[in-house]
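Backbone-to-sequence.
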């Protein structure tokens, strides 16, 4: 997966509390291959597109400059609902690398960190204020730095956030579950060789 260190990008406010993964990726799209060139169309499809496939002007991510956002600021319980990983894929395909919210669905949070999307928890008042500022001044940038664990708004106000050290390390290094395992490839190989040598009869072919 792509490593995450920092991002300085247009922020988009999503004023939907308890936004679930079915809203992010409607069920009918779950089996579409993630390498589909139009995968970004999945994101918020039910509210971004009309029945004829045209963009709906009233949805915020269809509007300039929010359509170029790399950071979303959401409300409480962002990504609740089912465990579908496609919700994270859809956000990444659209260009979103970070979601800031007061709280997240647990599985969505985990899926995000395993695919290079940074979920940042800030308190509700801060998130409300950030979204209000983005509505007031479209095109405002938000800077998120995983190395320093900080979010900086347009007024240079800095907010610190917590993240588990091992999750932070994985994101900084761009390691998914397979990548983490491969870090220990030499140790695994050494163990296997020692194990085979100590129990040769187990591995002897009949």
């Amino acid at each position: 997966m792509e490593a995450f260190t920092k991002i300085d990008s247009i922020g988009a406010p999503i004023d939907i509390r308890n936004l679930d993964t079915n809203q992010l990726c409607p069920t009918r799209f779950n089996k579409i291959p993630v390498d589909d060139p139009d995968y970004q169309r999945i994101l918020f499809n039910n509210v971004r597109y009309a029945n004829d496939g045209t963009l709906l002007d009233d949805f915020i991510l269809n509007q300039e400059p929010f359509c170029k956002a790399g950071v979303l600021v959401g409300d409480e319980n962002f990504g609740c609902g089912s465990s579908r990983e496609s919700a994270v894929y859809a956000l990444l395909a659209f260009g979103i690398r970070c979601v800031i919210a007061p709280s997240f669905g647990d599985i969505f949070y985990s899926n995000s960190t395993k695919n290079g999307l940074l979920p940042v928890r800030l308190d509700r008042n801060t998130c409300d204020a950030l979204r209000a500022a983005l509505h007031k001044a479209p095109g405002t940038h938000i800077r998120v730095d995983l190395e320093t664990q900080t979010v900086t708004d347009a007024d240079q106000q800095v907010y610190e956030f917590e993240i588990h050290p091992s999750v932070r390390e994985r994101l900084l290094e761009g390691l998914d579950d397979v990548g983490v395992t491969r870090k220990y490839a030499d140790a695994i190989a050494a163990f296997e060789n020692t194990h085979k040598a100590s129990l040769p009869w187990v591995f002897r072919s009949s």
